[in-house]
Amino acid sequence: MSAQAPAAQDALPASPAAQAAAEGDAATDGEPPARSAAASAAAPAMSRPQAQAGAGPAARPASASVVETVNLVFPEDANPKGTIFGGRVLQWVDMVGAMAAQRHCRQIVVTAVMDAVVFRAPIYVGEYAVAKAWVNRAWRSSMEVQVRVEAEAPLTGERRLSTEAFLTFVAVDAQDRPTAVPPLLPETPEEQERYAAAERRRAARMAFRPG
Ligand SMILES: CC(C)(COP(=O)(O)OP(=O)(O)OC[C@H]1O[C@@H](n2cnc3c(N)ncnc32)[C@H](O)[C@@H]1OP(=O)(O)O)[C@@H](O)C(=O)NCCC(=O)NCCS
Predict the structure, then answer these.
(1) How far apart are CA 20 and CA 205, in angstroms?
(2) Ligand 1, atom 11: nearest CA belongs to which residue?
(3) Which pTM value belongs to this model?
């Protein structure tokens, strides 16, 4: 999807910022905040001076990118079996992912890659689809966003994991050219693991880049 920037944007210089190269492994999720809320955290994986080296935009904390949306699943969202249509889930995944990317960079973003989409469990009509997204890592103009969709039973609040996905969004300027985004500052151990794992996934993506 393409997410348009709001009228009031943060001013961002156009040059890239230095990135810390780290290694680690994939991550888990914590308790989601309220709809469309941002969280906060502490303890940086890379030092702030390292993250802000050069003349590029200042690093932003990973927690500032967190977005959560909740959709009640209607019959028109379902397939003939009465469970959610995969294409509708992808729409919501793309939407919440774009908002997370845009919360990080506060620029226009487009979806460049959607990969590793796994539908683990169906969501039924009448249940809530709770989609949570956050930025794992930012490079020069691109950002890896992770999305988790959970099914929530409205009467009990019980949740189960439905869908997981990784997406790459690219910030573009007024001429649709890729433009620099702020580095991401992972602060918690979980964010640091995600940050490191994102670099390995990017390498795999680039290796299998079509064309
Ligand atoms: C996404 C898009 C802007 C990239 O343009 P491009 O000319 O390929 O630009 P670049 O080659 O410089 O790539 C831009 C960034 O995307 C990254 N990228 C491109 N393809 C990638 C892939 N397959 N995997 C991972 N990253 C990729 C590049 O690494 C680069 O990241 P960096 O600046 O952080 O290093 C362009 O392909 C586009 O406009 N695609 C259509 C988007 C769209 O319509 N989406 C659906 C509706 S919004």
Answers:
(1) 19
(2) 178
(3) 0.81
Tokens matching residue 144: 């890896």
User: What's the CA gap between 210 and 197, in Å, rounded?
Assistant: 22
Q: Ligand 1 pocket test: which of 170, 205, 208 has the largest number of ligand atoms within 8 Å of its C-beta?
A: 170
Name the CATH superfamily housing domain 6-207: Hotdog Thioesterase (3.10.129.10)
Q: Looking at ligand 1, which atom is closest to the CA of residue 180?
A: 33
Q: Determine contact, residues 154/129, Cβ cutoff 8 Å.
A: no
Closest CA to 132 of 40, 64, 66: 66
Question: Which SS3 state, helix, strand or coil, does residue 77 take?
Answer: helix
Q: Which two tokens stand for residue 169?
A: 């969004």
Q: Is 179 in the pocket of ligand 1 (CB under 6 A)?
A: no
- Give residue-wise pLDDT tens across range 113-133: 998 899 999 999 999 999 999
Averaged pLDDT for residues 36-49: 32
- Give me the amino acid identity at 18: A
| CB 50 within 8 Å of CB 20 | yes
Q: Is ligand 1 within 6 A of the CB of residue 146?
A: no
H or E element, residue 137: strand 128-138
